Structure formats: C-alpha cells, structure tokens
Amino acid sequence: MVRIRSVCKSVLGLALASALFATSLRAAEADKYLPSDSEAVVFVNVRQILDSPVSKKYLLEQIKDGLKKDADSQKFLAATGLDPLKDIGSLTLAVSPGEGPANPKVLGLLHGHYDVSKMQTALDAHAKDHADELKVHTEGALHVYEGKNKNGGEPAFFAFLDKETLAISPAKDVVIGASKASGTKKVKKGLQELIEKADEKQSIWLAALVTDEIKKALAANPQTANIANKLESITGNVAFTDAIQLDLNINSSDAKGATEVKKLVDGGKAILMLLVSQNEEVGPILGEVVEGLKITTAKNAVTVSGKVSSEQIEKVAAKAKK
Question: What are the residue boundaries of the structural domains of the chain, listed by start?
Fold first, then answer.
C-alpha cells in the first residue's frame, strides 16, 4: 500500500510548489469553511497557475516527473482515482490565533473534485493494515485521518468536508472546527474587508491583519519598535502569465509610519542582495530580480513590486538542468 504522509505531502506540495513559482477587478470571497477567528488568509489558484504559460513551459513536466518517480504517490492515485493535475482547483491557507504568537492555528482547504467514497475506502483500508502510519478518528459522520510521522515529528490531520473540500491541519480540533463552520459565522470585519478588496483572478492573493500580538513582538525589537503601533495590515498578489509579477502592500495608520516601514524594507532589500550574491549558480539571476524590486510609498502604504521575466526564468531553468 502507500505511506500516507508521503501522499499528503505530494498532493499538498503540488499546490504549494505552484505558489512558490508564482485585469479587471473582481472581488474575492471568504471561503465558507474559513474559521471565524482567522487573521490571515492566502489563496492559491492552482488551476490558473498550472494553466499559465510560465507553468506549462517550466513547471508542469517537473511535477509530472516527480509524481511518476514517487511509487507511494502512484499507488495512492491509482487506488483513489485522483489526478492532482486535473482535480485540484485551489488552496486556501488560514491562520488563526493559537497558544501564543509562535504557535498559531493553521488550516489548509484544498478544493477540487474528489471521489470521497473511493478515497475514504482506500484510506480506511490503509489505516487498518498500517496503524503505525494512519489512524481514523470518527467524529459523528466525519472521518478525521491522522497521518503519523515515524521520525517523531508532528502528525497531520485531514478530512473531507464535502466532495470538493479536503481540510488539512497539524491540529485535529482545527479540522473538526472547519467542518462545523460552513457559512455559520463571518470572519473578522477587518479581514473581511481585505478579502473583498482582493482580486480573485490573481494567481495568488494574501490578506493579513497585523494583530496585537505581532505588534507586541515588533515593539520588543529596537529595530521595529517605532513602527509597531503603526502597522495595520498586509495585502498582496502574484500573477502568473508568461512571467511572474509580485505586488505586496504594507499598510500603516499614517504617512509617517509608511516612511519608517519603507526604510526597513529598503534595508531588507540590501541584505537580500548580499545573501543572493553568495549563490554562485543562480546568484547573478536572483540579484537581477532583487535589484529590480521597486519600493514606493503612497499615503499610508508601502508597495513592493517585482517581476521575474521569462528570460530570467529561462536562465534559472537552464541552470537547474545542469
């Protein structure tokens, strides 16, 4: 049979790998399973990314080869009938407060088209034969699967909330909570407003509140203390076409705060330039990308914009093949 954690990593990794490689405005909507106490949301339009020219040229074949070489994944896909390159549509990541700022609650909602009955039959059979790898928790009609880490790491919990939604989290109660959240509660007003301003046609978009806990952490650092109480939110998006375009907005309470944030971001860019220059293989190419980042202020916001051109992607791809 199949090592279930390897399968989960392969399927979720497809969405995350797409995100790492990542217009009329049409407002986004909050996922119906989003926890009401969410403070940050990242949406990855996996389908749009995979269909983009840049992914078709440089990413798809690598994903296909990776899946073919992973015997465990092949067994799982054959048993369940899942085709991740066709059946997975999007990934929503939500972050909520947990036990302290260093331990937030994280929920992944992987939307697609699943044969839930077939997949649960395969998972239940595997749990029966390989209890050291997979355990099934029954919560009413909900089957919550616990993928165990043999090396002593944290387990992963996942469950099908419906035929189009797979919930994944390091915490079982987060998955169970998501199953009860469908349309019952709205997210925080501030986050809801940020989500509504996001463009759902983007390949990736981000909406995050700067919480009191984050502000306290910033205030404790001498380098960021002067902006701690100024920051309000962070938004951004990534567009995949024949190139990759990034736009990130750091929003403060006033123009003075934006000026201070820009100083920090300018310093961060200089440090990043130094770090990438130490990579002999792709350092010069990454240096071009970092150097091309534009950092500007407008009223209360700092915008960081950058682009990875098709020529630069071609150079990196050529290096990777050597």
Answer: 4-179, 210-321
